[in-house]
Amino acid sequence: MVTFVNKLSVHGDLGRFLAARTRLTRFLSAQPGCVSHQTLRLVGAADVFVELSVWKDADAHRAAVAADGYRKLSEELAELAAPEPGLYEAVAGGAAVA
């Protein structure tokens, strides 16, 4: 399993951002290999969010972001927030957990 982590600092309209995020979350959650997805908001900062999505493996995540419809949804979100994405794997004792 891998976890996609994306910090989003909103610089556009917050209502439009939340609507765009909802559409993108629905799309990604419906893709094969998506185990879970949640969005967190930084306490005390209405414009900073972190997306966490767990995927069966990196290939499933790559396929989801290559799927028809993803680009338009992600571009809409990027117009409203600065993303800081990364794909992470669990570690135990300093080594990746398979």
TrEMBL record:
<dbReference type="InterPro" id="IPR011008">
    <property type="entry name" value="Dimeric_a/b-barrel"/>
</dbReference>
<dbReference type="InterPro" id="IPR007138">
    <property type="entry name" value="ABM_dom"/>
</dbReference>
<feature type="domain" description="ABM">
    <location>
        <begin position="2"/>
        <end position="90"/>
    </location>
</feature>
<dbReference type="Pfam" id="PF03992">
    <property type="entry name" value="ABM"/>
</dbReference>
<protein>
    <recommendedName>
        <fullName>ABM domain-containing protein</fullName>
    </recommendedName>
</protein>
